[in-house]
Amino acid sequence: MVNKIEVKNLNVFFEGVHAVKNLSLEVKEHDILGIIGPSNSGKTSFLKALNRLNELYPNSRTSGEILLDGVRIKEIDKHSVRKRVGIVFALPLPFPLSIFDNIAYGPRMHGIKNRARLSEIVEKSLKAAAIWDEVKDRLQTNAFKLSGGQQQRLCIARTLAVEPEVILYDEPCSGLDPISTLKVEEAMQELKKNYTQILVTNNVKQSARVSNRTAFFLMGEMIEIGETKQVFTVPKDKRTEDYITGRFG
Amino acid sequence: MKRAFEFLIERAIFLSGIASIIFVVLIFFFLLKEGLALFQTESLTGFLFGKNWYPISDPPRFGILPLFLGSLLVTLGAIVIAVPLGLASAIYVAEVAPPKLRDILKSGIELLAAFPSIVLGFIGIVTLAPFLKSVFHLSSGLTALAGSIMLAFMAMPTIVSIIEDAIVSVPKNYREGSLALGATHWQTIYRVVLPAASSGILAAVMLGIGRVIGETMAVLMITGNAAVLPTSILQPVRTLTATIAAEMGEAVSGSEHYYALFAIGIVLFIISFVINLLADLFLHRKAAR
C-alpha cells in the first residue's frame, strides 16, 4: 500500500506550548488511523497541522515536514490542501443555512454552479454519511433543526461534498449518544473504501472498534503506533497499557 | 432600619423607572395637542401633499411636501454613501486589519462620533460646499448632496461600530468550518460571516437612518435651506428638522405657524417610530427563526 501521508519530525508550538514533539509517522491509503491519548496530548494540534488550519492562529508555529502523496503541503496552495484534507470537528456546527445549502457550500466555493450537479453531490454526500434517508424529504429546512447526531453526520457529508482524499475527525462523537455514535462509526467503515481517515478520539473503545491502526499520544509525544489489534492486546509500552486499561491518572 | 432603607431604595428606583415613561407620555400628548390644532384650519391632505411652504405669507401655506422630499433626498443620499462605506470599513476592521491597526482604527472611528455635528456642519460649509460648487459648476455648493455627505460622516461611526460588533460576535467555528472546506477568506466573509451577522447589520443601518433623520444643525447649515420641491440632489433643499429649528424662534406661540411646526414634529415622530418598529420586527423575526 502507498503512503498517503508522511509526517517527518513534526513540531507544533501553540501559544508558547510545545504541543507536538518531534512526531514522525505514516498513514497508508484507506487506513483508518485512530489516535488516542488524554487531553492536551497534542492530538488536535496534530490534526490542524495536517490541513494547515493551524495557520489561522497567529501564535501557532510548526516545523518539520508533512507530505501528502509525497508532496510537501507547504508547497501546495493552502486552500487546495484544505479541500483535499477535510476535517470534522468535535462540536457539529452547521452553517445557519438549509441542509441543502450546507452541503452545497463547499462545492459552490470551488466553482460548481450547475443546480443539477449540486443536487447530485448533495445526495451522494448525504448517502455516504448515512443520513440521506433521514433528511431527503426536508432538504430545505434549516440545519439547526436536526438532532446533534444528525448535525454531526451532516458535517461529515459537508466535508465529503468537496471530494477530499483524507478525512480528519477531531473527537467526532464526544457530544453524541451511543446510537448516533454507532451510526457515525458505520459511516466511517463505509468511507474506508474511498478515503484515508484519521480519527482522534477520547474514547479508547471507539478506536478499538473503528481503526485498523492506532497511535497513542501523551504530552505531545507519540508513545506507540501499531496495528490496532496489537496495540490493544500486547502494547509495547507500559504507559499505553495503563491508558487503555484505564489505570492512567 | 435596614428594611426601611431597602424600602426607600426600591421606591426610588421605581420612581426613576416610571419617570422616563411618564415623560415620554407627556411629551407625546403635548406634541399631539399642539400639532393636531393645525387641522382646525388646514386640511390633512393640504398639509401632507401641499407643494408650498409659505408660513408667513397671507394667506399662509403649510404644505410640507418639499420639506418631506428634502429630508428623504438627504437621508437616502446619506444612506447610499454611509452603508456601503461603513460595511466595507467594518469588514476591514473586524476581519482583515492586523490587531494593532484594528485598535487604532476603532478609536479613530469612535473619535469621529465625538465631533459635535455643528462642527462637522461648519467644516462642511467652508470645505465641502466650495468643492462641490467647483466640481459640478453650481451657483451654490449648499445642496442636498452636501448634506448627504456630511450626514454620512455622522452616521458612519454608529454603523461601523455596530456592524463590527456583529461580525466579531459570529462564532469562530463558522469561519473555521468554512476555511476547512477550502473556501478562501473572502468567500468565508461573504457567504458565512455576513449572513450570520445580518441582523446586526440591519440594526446598524436602521440606527444610522435614525441618526440621519433626526440630525438638525448640520443640515440646517449646509443644505441651502430652500423650501422648494427638489428635482435633483444638486439642488438646495430644506429638511423637516431644519424647518422646525429655523422657524420655531420666530413663530408666535398659539399661531397657525406654531401649530404647523408641531405637526411637522408629529410627522418626524411617526417616521422614527416606523423605522424602529421595522428594525424590531426584523430582529425578532430573525431571532424566532
Automatic annotation (TrEMBL), chain A:
GO cellular component: membrane
A UniProt-annotated Pfam family: ABC_tran
Family annotation (PROSITE patterns): ABC_TRANSPORTER_1 (PS00211), ABC_TRANSPORTER_2 (PS50893)
Keyword Transmembrane: no
InterPro entries, A to Z: AAA+_ATPase (IPR003593), ABC_transporter-like_ATP-bd (IPR003439), ABC_transporter-like_CS (IPR017871), P-loop_NTPase (IPR027417), PstB-like (IPR005670)
GO molecular function per UniProt: ATP binding; ATP hydrolysis activity; phosphate transmembrane transporter activity
GO biological process terms, semicolon-separated: phosphate ion transmembrane transport
PANTHER family: ABC TRANSPORTER I FAMILY MEMBER 17
This protein's name: Phosphate ABC transporter ATP-binding protein
Species of origin: candidate division WOR-1 bacterium RIFCSPHIGHO2_01_FULL_53_15
UniProtKB/TrEMBL annotation, chain B:
Family stated for the protein in its record: Belongs to the binding-protein-dependent transport system permease family. CysTW subfamily.
Lineage: Bacteria, Bacillati, Saganbacteria
Domain ABC transmembrane type-1: 68-279
Entries under PANTHER family matching the protein: PHOSPHATE TRANSPORT SYSTEM PERMEASE PROTEIN PST, PHOSPHATE TRANSPORT SYSTEM PERMEASE PROTEIN PSTC
Topology versus the membrane: Multi-pass membrane protein
Major location (coarse): membrane
Gene Ontology, cellular component aspect: plasma membrane
Parts of the chain that traverse the membrane: 12-32, 64-97, 109-132, 144-168, 189-213, 258-283
Pfam families: BPD_transp_1 (PF00528)
Keyword Signal on entry: no
Localization: Cell membrane
InterPro entries: MetI-like, MetI-like_sf, Phosphate_PstC, Phosphate_Transport_Permease
This protein's name: Phosphate transport system permease protein
NCBIfam families the record matches: phosphate_pstC
SUPFAM superfamilies named in the record: MetI-like
GO BP annotation list: phosphate ion transport
PROSITE patterns xrefs: ABC_TM1
Alphabetically ordered keywords of this record: Cell membrane, Membrane, Phosphate transport, Transmembrane, Transmembrane helix, Transport
Single GO term (MF): phosphate transmembrane transporter activity
Function: Part of the binding-protein-dependent transport system for phosphate; probably responsible for the translocation of the substrate across the membrane.
